[in-house]
Amino acid sequence: MAAVTLITLTALATLAEPVVAFGTPYHHTYPTGYSNCSSSDLAQLALGKVLSDAAPVFGIYADVESSTSTWMREYADDTLIVHMNLPGTHDADTWNYSLTTQQSLDHVTGLANITEFDPAAYRCQDLSMVRMLDDGIRVFDLRYAFDVTNTTLVFWHGPGLVSETATVDDVLYGFYRWLDDHPSEALFLSFQYEGSTTPYGSNDAG
Ligand SMILES: *[C@@H]1O[C@H](CO)[C@@H](O)[C@H](O)[C@H]1NC(C)=O
Ligand SMILES: *[C@@H]1O[C@H](CO)[C@@H](O)[C@H](O)[C@H]1NC(C)=O
Ligand SMILES: *[C@@H]1O[C@H](CO)[C@@H](O)[C@H](O)[C@H]1NC(C)=O
Ligand SMILES: *[C@@H]1O[C@H](CO)[C@@H](O)[C@H](O)[C@H]1NC(C)=O
Where in the sequence is the signal peptide annotated (predicted)? Predict the structure, then answer.
């Protein structure tokens, strides 16, 4: 069941035209003449950098083989999804949001004059997303919007910015890496535009 399903939700949380996409590996092809081992070293370095950028949202990557990290192995590929109970987590990306996180991002949120509340109000989980995957979670509620410079998509819980380095793309590399290491598993990722982030943020701005 090695597939990742992307479900796009609207700002109103209504299910609108779900997009289904299947995971592709992250391998790159290199131009002729650059096929030496240094290319794969560079690919490893690049992936390591992306996973490091993703860590504040995805967690620190480690390949864990356990009964919970491979539980779908027990089910035949033709098992209907409606016959399965898939555990999921709400606002999964907020697991490391604390006063320290909030204050460490003041120089970013300050650019848009954002005022947050008590950090405990934004944190909904305790374990990193990679730990959730290894523990058997297969459905993730992910909330994103533009960063304060309108250039990249990052994770928010209302005005609580979760990280400035972990972009949505970076975190997807984390999920794909995990799927490559756990080919028996399948995931549902729900991407929802998060409102009330920057004062000017709006859904039609991307
Ligand atoms: C490619 O790697 C081999 C063995 O590691 C080395 O001998 C060779 O010089 C390298 N070629 C280039 C173009 O770097
Ligand atoms: C979690 O937050 C703390 C405090 O901001 C930080 O030191 C730590 O690096 C964060 N963890 C990850 C994986 O980014
Ligand atoms: C933030 O507040 C300052 C001081 O009130 C103001 O000069 C500035 O234009 C505000 N910036 C934004 C992005 O709203
Ligand atoms: C981001 O876009 C909004 C809406 O178009 C605009 O008001 C705001 O100034 C932009 N922010 C930056 C940093 O360019």
Answer: 1-21
Q: Residue 150 CA: which ligand 4 atom is closest?
A: 1
Q: Whose CA is nearest to atom 14 of ligand 4?
A: 149
Helix then strand count (H, E) for the chain reads: 5, 6
Residue 202 beta carbon below 6 angstroms from any ligand 4 atom = no
List per-block mean pLDDT (blocks of 10 residues) for the chain, which spans 206 residues.
Answer: 45 34 44 63 94 98 97 96 96 98 97 94 97 98 96 96 97 98 97 93 69
The count of structural domains within the chain is 1
**Is the residue at 114 inside a domain?**
yes
Q: Note whether residue 55 is domain-resident.
A: yes
Helix segments in 24-114, DSSP class H: 37-58, 99-104, 106-109
Residue 37 lies in a domain: no
Lining residues, ligand 1, CB within 6 Å: 36-37
Q: For residue 83, what are its two tokens? A: 């016959």
> Positive or negative CA dihedral for 18, 23, 24, 27?
positive
Nearest CA to ligand 3 atom 7: 113
Structural domain harbouring 103: 1-7+48-151+180-197
